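Troubleshooting entry. Yesterday's outputs looked truncated, so today I'm pasting the complete records for two proteins to confirm everything comes through intact. If either block looks cut off, that's the bug. Protein one:
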Amino acid sequence: MKNTIIQLLKSEVKPALGCTEPVAVALAVAKAREVLGEECLECTIEVSANIYKNGMGVGIPGSNGKIGLEIAAAMGLLGGDSKLGLAVLESVEESQIDEAQRMVDEGFIKISPVKEGDRIFTRAVLKGENSIAEAVISTKHDNFVLVKKDNQVILNTCMSNITGSASSQNESPVVKLTIKELIQLVEELELRDIEFLLEGIEMNRKMADKGLSQRLGAGVGYSLKLAIEDGFISADLINMAMMITAAASDARMSGVKMSVMSSNGSGNHGLTAILPIAAYNDKYPQSDEKLAKALAISHLVIAYVKNYTGRLSAVCGCGVAASVGSTAAIAWLMDLGYEAIEGAISNVIANLSGMICDGAKAGCAYKLSSAAAAAMQSAINVKYGSIVPKFNGIVGETVEESIRNLGEVSDRGMRVTDDVIVDVMDRMNKNKSASIIMV
């Protein structure tokens, strides 16, 4: 089981350049272009409703401030390198951006949402003069399930996903354990096996520093920095966690061309999983071994929660999953004991379980600041004796039951909510486009 969770960490904690939903689209298009091997004359893309929602209003790295799935797809078509995975846009040259925007303006990139099927689903179909190439990503943002050219199938790992139909959820190995057992396993790990997790602090901290150096995106972190400098609020643990986590999101959502360490398929999850722990380490320095184990706890607890809520959902994963992982790690760093760690998790579930996800965008920095604050506050409250009682709302008798309840509410309970969110955002996007045309 130790080897299993080490491999899980290596597969779920990796660098990502840009919001992973538009990146998934760019990755699929880049792969299809490479397979096509000739000039693309038509580009048609289908995406799940959740990919559509999360890519609509977010900044794209290296695009000079442009937003949306279309520009990401065009950049992937012109210069993306599929071998780079979630960093596919790293290879796009600045000289290609104007051409990418021209493609978008002329309607060359055609993207449509499909409401049924996997929450992570992207199909790119490119037509040339002589051939047609297709690439399909499903279940994870960088997981190709189908690649074909004309009638030649190059890769096919899951036929059920070709049409976007729902696949059976692969159960994470961590859910075979209790939260206590999971943490006990982490405690037995060797530093050499998880030392790579420490890179996440350095990487995500650089993104936070970028957001603190100037007002980017919604400017949430930058504003908190000014408030601290003015003495309006104090530089305490909660505010510092809020500030650096929000600042990193400000920079990332605005399209800064820098990678962050992601967690369970999301860069913003990675920010929330890592930066509150970094803030705690600033105040109370830890050894590399203890810090790496805290990060492992954070990422693995997130994986535990996401097994039930899904990788994408109607609720904000940073609030209901990443904050849960982060608070577990902080409570562990405080040496509060397993029961207290479970209490901190229950506190977050009682606090943030209703936070909706209305797509990746500048305003995510506010949600990440709330998630970071809740993670820190929940652990601190436990330290001083405050734990939400059992059978309190969706908080169950055990922490594992609480997480399952959270997943049921997030998945089955909010499917209609997700459809409504997408409809509202789609309507506003069309109204915005119409207003621009009228002007």
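Protein two, checking that the full record survives here as well:
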Amino acid sequence: MNRLTLDRVEPTPAEGVGERSSRLAPTLAIVAAGTFLALVTYTGPLGNLPTVARALAAGANGQTWILSSTSVALAAVLLTAGALADDHGRRRVFVAGNALIAAGSLACALATSTAPFILGRLVEGVGSAGIVASSLGLVAALARTPADRAMISGVWGASVGGGIAAGPVITGFLDELHLWRGFYALLALGTVALALVAQRVAAESVAPTPRPVDLPGAGALGLALVLALVALTEGRDGLTPWVATAGGGALAAAALFVVVERRRRAPMLELHLFRDRQFTGATVAALGTGIGVIGVMSFSCNFFITELGLSSLGAALLLLAWSGASTGAALLARCLPPALQGPRQLTLGLAGVAVGELAMVGAVPGPVWHLVPGLAVAGVASGVLNAGLGRQAVATVPPERASVGSGANNTARYLGSSIGVTLVVIVATRTGAGSRPGFAGWNHALILSACAALVTAVVVAALTRRENSSSRNPRGTRITATPRT
């Protein structure tokens, strides 16, 4: 490919720069709202798991799946959702994602036992995948200048941080009012409203030459990810024959996916993308974000409640020192000098998270506020990291495959989060007091997560050390380290 190809933006394929730019702001607002709601959906149960577990009579295994079901569905279908968005309409997939979250949330609100609730969370995860995968592609198709692209990455990263921050706070507040089901009713209403607005306001876009759906590839990848995530989730209680079987099946399905994609004329994921150090570095950074950031962050609320004696709302507000700082830092990340953007931004963010996590080691037992400086440092670094991941996700793929780039990057992130949560739970509980983490378990979990973030930072730096903040796609076209259209 000797030149960049413009995505087709409907209904006026030949619209001018001014008109396309005028449609960027409302589309970005809708994308930010959708990403925010998807992350609220993902993190909401962190704030009131004990209450939900009591209401549904969920045992230890049921509680594990209440927390993990959405991430399983998210990771399993993200890449497929990205391919569908690029080839069949990003707005269409975005609207469908909101509709699915509404349906899953309604099922959760009405559930009276654990199984229907988990089923609803799975549907929410599929819907969230549609939103997350299509969102960056929707706005990347309208961006025309470096300033546009910097704004997009900052707003998208802030919406991720904002959603992470708001989810536990909302559920914690409703928990105080004994209205935990109200969270899911609000989600259903919010996503239905957003779907209606998006259908009317957001600009539709598709790749200039849409391709057929890669059903064999989607099936093999979905099976591999589901089995891997099931093995990780069930493996938190130890290695059993079922866990080993699921893990072996995941490896076999992953191998099948590689074989299928190498033979397809129009694969869902072009494997030659991994020859590009920028793409591989961004994918590794996303995986490390899941392991070293999301893993311990997902565990934090439970630790604050069970070991520090905080209420659901109090734990969520303490975690806000991390997630709130992340939101602000993502918005300001566009002010970073060019020399610190691109892969260096990812390395800087990962290293900063590690510093913040290590700063919390040994802070408790003691006043709760001793955790705040470490949480804030990790939050600022997370915001820089989120903004950089959003930028690199679409900068390292051909522009007509922007949603696939987002899907691949976020698949790595949520697969990493499952790995991270599993490792944190195992380390924390086995070095803590029985099935509870204790302060020693918490400290070991922090050290593990910090080491994972630091190792990832080193790997990303090594992969991209010969590159500057620009990126070369596998076909040899130089593109900037920001979304191109």
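Both blocks look complete. Sanity check on protein two: The CA atoms of residues 257 and 263 lie 10 Å apart.
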